[in-house]
Amino acid sequence: MRKLLLSLTLYLFAGSLFAQEMVNTRRARIVSPEITKDSITFRLRAEYATTVSLTGSWQARGEFPIAMKRDANLVWNVTIPNPKPDLYYYTFNVDGTSVCDPANTSTDRDGTTYRSIFLIDGDLSRHYKDAAVRGNVSAIWYDSPTIGAKRKMMVYTPAGYDDNKKAKYPVLYLLHGGGGDEEAWLSLGRAAQILDNLIAEGKAVPMLIVMPNGNSNQIQSHINDIPGQEASTLMQNDIQSDLYVTSLIKDIIPYIDSHYRTIAKKEGRAISGLSMGGGHTLRTNYLFPGYFNYICPQSTGAHPHNQKTTSYAFDEDTLYKYLEGIKKAGYKLFWLGCGDVDPWFAEAQELDRLLTQHGMPHTFYVTGGGHEWKNWRHYLDTFAPLLFK
Amino acid sequence: MRKLLLSLTLYLFAGSLFAQEMVNTRRARIVSPEITKDSITFRLRAEYATTVSLTGSWQARGEFPIAMKRDANLVWNVTIPNPKPDLYYYTFNVDGTSVCDPANTSTDRDGTTYRSIFLIDGDLSRHYKDAAVRGNVSAIWYDSPTIGAKRKMMVYTPAGYDDNKKAKYPVLYLLHGGGGDEEAWLSLGRAAQILDNLIAEGKAVPMLIVMPNGNSNQIQSHINDIPGQEASTLMQNDIQSDLYVTSLIKDIIPYIDSHYRTIAKKEGRAISGLSMGGGHTLRTNYLFPGYFNYICPQSTGAHPHNQKTTSYAFDEDTLYKYLEGIKKAGYKLFWLGCGDVDPWFAEAQELDRLLTQHGMPHTFYVTGGGHEWKNWRHYLDTFAPLLFK
Question: Considering only residues 204 to 223 of chain B, which have any Cβ-Cβ distance to chain A shorter than 8 Å?
Answer without folding.
Answer: 222-223
